[in-house]
């Protein structure tokens, strides 16, 4: 069954190009492509919600970063990938803190966008290489220290390590010989304990030494 993708992008040429490409893929369908967060919120209220939303940051009306919080609050199961020209650390970390599960730059090719969506659906946290490097450099420069008071269980630490290694939920389950439902249960507990909303935030906290 094809996964459903939505797009929020105010550049019509880019929006239409991505929508047409995704609709040509067997694994994906893109029934909704709009130019504002407000339009996407209206669509979500009237129709079934997509599995993944590709969203720009600078949009008419509400910003994409503010939109992440509103969408995740009402529809926590939707994963959001930022697709933007912005690569400054402030916007990257604001998007991740708001609940984005991935961050791609707009020069990302269409096949790479497709691959990133599939990776996200499979439990990954896709980022453009430049963005991943910025995330790692940021935490290295801030001299991370281990938090001895972390209340994650040993198995939850295993799950976090799997996420940091870029493994999907299925791959984590195979690594530790547990079911994928058990992995999902651990992920929910980790989110609750760390007060986060996305895999990207878990990875960021781990790299920063806060786990």
UniProtKB/TrEMBL annotation:
InterPro entries, per the entry: CheY-like_superfamily, NreC/VraR/RcsB-like_REC, Sig_transdc_resp-reg_C-effctor, Sig_transdc_resp-reg_receiver, Tscrpt_reg_LuxR_C, WalR-like
Modified residues (4-aspartylphosphate): 56
BP GO annotations: phosphorelay signal transduction system; regulation of DNA-templated transcription
GO molecular function: DNA binding
Entry-linked SMART domains: HTH_LUXR (SM00421), REC (SM00448)
Family matches, as PROSITE patterns: HTH_LUXR_1 (PS00622), HTH_LUXR_2 (PS50043), RESPONSE_REGULATORY (PS50110)
HTH luxR-type domain mapped to chain residues: 145-210
Domain Response regulatory: residue ranges: 4-121
Keywords per UniProt: DNA-binding, Phosphoprotein
Protein name: Response regulator transcription factor
Organism (species): Halalkalibaculum roseum
């Amino acid at each position: 069954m094809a996964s459903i993708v939505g797009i929020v992008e105010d550049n019509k040429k880019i929006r239409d190009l991505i929508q047409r490409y995704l609709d040509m893929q067997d694994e994906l369908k893109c029934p909704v492509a709009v130019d504002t967060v407000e339009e996407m919120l209206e669509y979500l209220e009237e129709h079934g919600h997509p599995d993944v939303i590709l969203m720009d940051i600078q949009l008419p009306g509400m910003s994409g970063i503010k939109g992440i919080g509103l969408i995740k609050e009402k529809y926590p199961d939707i994963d959001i990938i930022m697709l933007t020209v912005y690569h400054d650390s402030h916007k990257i970390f604001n998007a991740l803190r708001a609940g984005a599960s991935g961050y791609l730059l707009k020069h990302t090719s269409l096949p790479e966008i497709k691959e990133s969506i599939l990776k996200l659906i499979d439990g990954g946290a896709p980022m453009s290489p430049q963005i991943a490097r910025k995330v790692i450099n940021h935490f290295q420069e801030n001299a991370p220290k281990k938090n001895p008071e972390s209340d994650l269980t040993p198995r939850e630490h295993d799950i976090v390590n799997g996420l940091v290694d870029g493994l999907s939920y299925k791959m984590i389950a195979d690594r530790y010989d547990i079911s994928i439902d058990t992995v999902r249960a651990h992920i929910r507990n980790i989110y609750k304990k760390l007060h986060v909303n996305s895999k990207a935030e878990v990875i960021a906290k781990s790299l920063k030494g806060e786990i």
